[in-house]
Design goal:
single chain; alpha/beta; OB fold (Dihydrolipoamide Acetyltransferase, E2P); Rossmann fold; 4 domains; 7-stranded parallel sheet; 6-stranded parallel sheet; globular; binds adenosine-5'-diphosphate; binds magnesium ion
Length: about 675
């Protein structure tokens, strides 16, 4: 086939691949994958090393392995939960495979005497070495085939096996010259793009695996990484370029801001004041603002945003405040209502409002009576029409993922000012290279009344000590957040909210604790939170829904289960739920009895520092090859190849290319942003 017959991968839906039907396509969509190009650009986050066959006797806990062995014994239990246990041996020893979720047919594969190749991660279980939900295949040849297998970001409904298969189908199409991928980097002598894509998905097993990991030397990796860095730069630079020539309304009224400030029960910190002044200069400048206000948890970003909003409403225009959760939206609503008093109409707009009430609210927004509209992404729903939307404030901006495209375009008349709030501090050096073009204000210090939170770590073995401590704390008036990670099917070894509930049931009076989780209705959540706020409930058992912004000043203890499974930024955010009142506050990090060296180091950082910026820096230093834990929570755009951002050589090369692309027509610039950071388009799409 000649080259001009190749079809652009960006124009083909994933359903073009054999075996991908509508239902799989909708699962893939959750990962941001719609076209075959999207699939090809869904790069591995790490690899599984199956280049060497291991012997069972040589396995140690917490290692990835691949073994070959025969099934010695299979047993099933139904209490306490359904489970299948398979004992597999080779000529050096044995290991147990544990399955919690399995289809009945699995019993036919794991027959006594069957020869299998198993790969997974080892752990120390009750009966010795075991592995949970390993991958397996029936051995078809005596010869072991070394492989380096890609590991991808997944979502519910798709397995590694499945996604590997369809990605392989797509890379085959490139290799057979059926499809092509457009190279957006101007004339260059870089590694060929298509070849790089193919090799990153399926490295040659004789290559060194390190070369494909973070910081790796593979030219393919460098090629793709460079494009990602360029795309990121373009995404901000192009907004800046566009904004320069756009008119925006000028807001310089400050009487209301002064009035609000003087009625606060506290005075603003120096950092808050200077952040306010910087932002105010932007909205008075005549060009659309796009600014990030970053500051540690509890640093007081909300009041700064509110003071800015007051300038807008003083001129009779509207402000939308977008929060990631209903709980948080309500909290903002209460705060804003208190601060603004009766000086303007404020309303709360979430997705679960009775139709009639909603109609009234929408009417008021459309007529311009409501000046400040606070809500979840419901504030951008189709039927919401604004009268004069001039400022949009996004709280915890990084939580608005690619899938929650914000439809600001149809909402605002002209070019609204945009303010992004983020509690995940980004170290300065990194901010300059990664967020080039975005204006940033920083609140570094916390309000003076804050006491540092005392953080300790405790192994699960010492749970008794923890329970005693909590009992005595609540009897002397303390309130406690008790947090579990959300558990995915394959991670049944972790302590989930149900397991924890069982523990608490035996140890505490039923009225002492309540459970809050993501699946509850907003009404239920609100009631539970209310009873925690007014101290009827002493312990709030929660999944990470509480992470974002909740403010209950009297709660002074937080326990975090499986803390080794959280990213440092997220732990720091969670910890920020306490330390808001006058009492001494504590954070207790529960963890597995045996911790890897890296986990120990990470927990140590959190225990020793209360400074979000310091933690963020240390966190980045610790991220060695292949370690992506918590990256999506850092607030940085989630780079697949982010190692390159610290590399000067690549930075310079990327700057050079970006300068060229920025001269191209805007449609050309959009293409590369669309490929890598579609969410960023929403910020400029106005
Ligand atoms: P975040 O920056 O994490 O969003 P908030 O805006 O929720 O923090 O502020 C946390 C708490 O600190 C709120 O209760 C707020 O009223 C209070 N606060 C804000 N600024 C100050 C200040 N300068 N002095 C004392 N308390 C403050
Ligand atoms: Mg906040």
């Amino acid at each position: 086939m000649s080259t001009d017959q190749k079809i652009d991968a960006a124009s083909l839906p994933v359903t073009f691949i054999r075996g991908v039907g509508e239902s799989l396509a909708s699962t893939l969509k959750k990962l941001g994958i719609v076209t075959i190009e999207d699939l090809l650009f869904h790069f591995p986050i790490s690899y599984q090393d199956r280049t060497e066959l291991n012997k069972i006797a040589e396995l140690t806990p917490d290692k990835e392995f691949v073994i070959r062995g025969s099934v010695e014994k299979v047993s099933q239990t139904f209490v306490p939960r359904k489970m299948m246990l398979v004992k597999v041996k080779d000529n050096t020893g044995h290991i147990f495979l544990r399955f919690f979720y399995y289809f009945p047919g699995l019993r036919n594969i794991f027959k006594e005497g069957a020869n299998l190749q198993i790969s997974g991660t080892s752990r120390l279980g009750r009966y010795g070495l075991e592995t949970i939900h390993p991958e397996y295949e029936v051995i078809s040849s005596d010869e072991f085939v070394p492989q380096i297998l890609p590991k991808y970001r997944l979502t519910k409904g798709i397995t590694h096996q499945k996604i590997r298969k369809i990605v392989a189908a797509a890379t085959d199409m490139i290799e057979n010259h059926k499809i092509s991928v457009c190279d957006y980097l101007p004339a260059n002598n870089l590694e060929n793009l298509s070849e790089s894509i193919v090799n990153i998905h399926s490295p040659n097993p004789t290559d060194k695996i390190e070369d494909y990991l973070i910081g790796g030397q593979s030219p393919y990796r460098k090629r793709i990484g460079l494009e990602e860095v360029v795309a990121n730069k373009i995404s901000y630079l192009s907004i800046k370029h566009q904004n320069k020539n756009k008119p925006a309304e000028i807001f310089n009224e400050i009487n209301l801001a002064n009035k609000i400030e003087s009625s606060l029960p506290f005075s603003l910190t120096t950092d808050q004041t200077s952040a306010y002044e910087e932002i105010h200069r932007d909205i008075a400048s005549g060009s659309p603002m796009l600014r990030l206000l970053q500051g540690d948890v509890g640093s007081g970003k909300t009041i700064v945003a509110a003071l800015i909003a007051s300038s807008i409403v003083s001129s009779g225009k509207q402000v939308a405040v977008l929060a990631p959760t209903t709980i948080l939206a309500k909290q903002h609503f209460n705060n804003f209502s208190e601060w603004f008093g009766d000086s303007c109409d404020i309303d709360l707009l979430t997705s679960k409002i009775p139709a009639k009430e909603r109609r009234t609210k929408l009417e008021n927004i459309k007529e311009g009576r409501t000046k400040i509209i606070i809500g979840t992404h419901a504030v951008f729903q189709k039927d919401v029409e604004y009268n004069s939307l001039s400022l949009v404030i996004y709280d915890e901006q990084h939580r608005f993922g690619v899938t929650q495209r914000l439809k600001l375009k149809e909402k605002a008349e002209e070019y609204p000012h945009q303010l992004l709030l983020s509690a995940t501090p980004i170290p300065r050096t990194m901010a300059m290279s990664v967020l080039s073009g975005l204006d940033i204000s920083t609140i570094k210090s916390l309000p003076p009344n804050r006491k540092p939170i005392v953080t300790t770590e405790l192994s699960n073995q010492r749970r008794d000590a923890l329970i005693n401590r909590i009992k005595s704390a609540i009897s002397s008036g303390s309130q406690v957040y008790w947090v579990c990670p959300l558990i995915e099917e394959s991670e049944s070894a972790l302590i989930g909210i149900e397991d924890l509930e069982k523990i608490l049931k035996d140890e505490f009076v039923a009225d002492d604790y309540k459970i809050l989780h993501g699946k509850m209705s907003d009404k239920e959540k609100g009631e539970i939170l209310e009873s925690f706020k007014n101290k009827e409930t002493k312990i709030l058992l929660a999944t990470t829904v509480i992470e974002v912004g909740i403010d209950v000043p009297d709660a002074n203890i937080i326990v975090i289960e499986n803390s080794e499974r959280f990213g440092l930024a997220q732990l720091h955010q969670l910890r920020g739920r306490v330390g808001r009142g006058s009492k001494e506050s504590y954070c207790i990090l529960m963890h597995d009895d045996s911790l890897s060296e890296l986990s120990q180091k990470r927990l140590k950082i959190i225990c020793e520092s209360n400074d979000g910026f310091h933690i963020a820096e240390e966190d980045l230093k610790l991220r060695g090859p292949g370690d992506i834990l918590g990256l999506s929570q850092t607030g940085l755009p989630s780079f697949t190849f982010y190692d390159l951002i610290s590399n000067d050589e690549v930075q310079n090369e990327a700057n050079r290319i970006a300068d060229e692309i920025i001269q191209l027509p805007i449609e050309e610039q959009r293409k590369i942003i669309e490929r890598w950071f579609p969410a960023h388009l929403e910020l400029s799409d106005v």
